[in-house]
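Troubleshooting log. The previous structure file for this entry was overwritten by mistake, so regenerating from the original sequence record. Sequence copied from the archived sheet and checked twice against the printout by T.R.
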Amino acid sequence: MTEGGEQRTKAIDEKFCSECGAVIKAKAEICPKCGVRQMPVPSVLGGVAANGKSRIVAALLAFFLGGFGIHKFYLGKTGLGVLYLVFFWTFIPAIVAFLEFILLLIMSDEEFNRKYGAA
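Regenerated output below.
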């Protein structure tokens, strides 16, 4: 509502603040009126952790390149990635990576963020 008591509508490149309801730019991360950080719009393809890692990307890497441990390097688990590389010729890492692919697909975004979201 404005001073005159009328309600202002938002334009296509604007949104309402989640806290005070003020009309702000759609790309604004912080409301200039109340200073509250705006939550990002949830993604359809799965969430992205605070460090920028995606659950879907990790799952795809586990499926296609998991035998080499590429998904472990992506998730910041360098030691396990090296272990996968050392034993890739046994095909055991490929089997384990396929299981991890399935686990990553059924894992919730909250669990992924808790497990791999450290910046």
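The beta strands are 14-16, 23-25. Archived copy saved in two places this time.
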